[in-house]
Each structure stands twice: as structure tokens, then as C-alpha cells.
Amino acid sequence: MSHRVIGGTARGRKLQLVPGDSTRPIKDLVKESLFNIIGGDIVDARVLDLFGGTGAVGIEALSRGAASAVFCELDRLALRTIEENLTHTKLKARADVRRVDALAMLRGAPPPEPYHYIYVAPPQYKGVWLEVLNILDDNDGWLGDETTVIAQIDPHEYTEAIFDHLELTDRRTYGKTTLLFYMRYGDALDAE
Length: 192
Prior knowledge:
This protein is α/β, with parallel strands linked by helices. The protein has helices at residues 28-38, 56-63, 76-89, 102-107, 128-138, 187-191, and strands spanning 46-50, 68-73, 95-99, 115-120, 143-153, 166-174, 177-184. A seven-stranded mixed beta sheet has the order 3-2-1-4-5-7-6, sandwiched between helices. The longest helix is centred in the middle third of the chain and has 14 residues, at 76-89. The chain has one domain (28-191): Rossmann fold, CATH 3.40.50. The termini are far apart.
């Protein structure tokens, strides 16, 4: 399976996959579609890549001009893969790789400055994506006026959910991958 940076300064560089089957890397077609949707808004953005895996989404964001990306991952092989991919793409200077439980981190104190994009690609079929959104909704200090939360799930995992602070603004399915885009209430209306 091809796994590479699609655009920006590291365009065309191949990314290493995490050894074994502990992660499910985003397909290049889905990643390209994602960044076509985000467009130029990624420039100077702060990105939080939860359940980082290979680091492909955060690395793509950095390659396309994001100001910074924080990668959260517990798996040691995935952490090593993220570090190797950042070194190979020469994007390490704007990256922060953390060995941390994403759920525990989100239940804690929010960052001083919210992220523009929070990418959620947790293990499948465990309801973790919904748990993350519920935590963000309850601890909305993680959500700024310009924050978009994007969940990557299998289409069969999708279930409608009502949140106090988050609203589903877009849903795209590409084969066996669905991307869900959420914004804060009010912010979603302003974006239209």
C-alpha cells in the first residue's frame, strides 16, 4: 500500500508503516480528500493528531504549512514510526510527539491556546471516537472558536449523537472510511 505525503514541502516522500497490525493508516485517497476539504485553512494552524499511528495526518498538515502538530500515541512502535517519518520528511522542528493516553489527556486541563484541528483516528469498533467527542464536549476548553474536530471511523461505526457544544457539519465516506467534521455550535453557522 502506498503511503506518502501528498502535498506541500515534503510532497512525494514515502512514510513508513507501523510494523504489525496495531494501527490502520489513512489511505492516500482519503488523506488527499481531507486536505482538499480543509484547503488553505491549514496554513499556520495548530493541529492535534490523536492516536497518531504513522503520523500521516499531522505530517501532511505540517508539510502543507501548519504552524505545529502534536502527535499523541501510546504504542511504542507507532511512536518510533512517527519519529522516523518526521525525521525523513524534515518536519520534526514543528512537531511534538507525546506518549500519552489521549482520553486521559483530554480529561485534563486544556491547552492555553486551543487547536485549530483535532484529528481523531482511534482503534475501530470500540466506540472510542464517540468517547473522545463526549469528552471534548464536556471539557470544551479544548474547543476554540475556530476548532474543527475530525473523526476517522469505519462507516459501520457511525451513530448519530447530540452534543451540547459540538455540531456535525459534514460527513464524507470513502470506501471503508468515513470522515466526520464537527464544529462548536454557532461557529458552524458562521462558517456557512
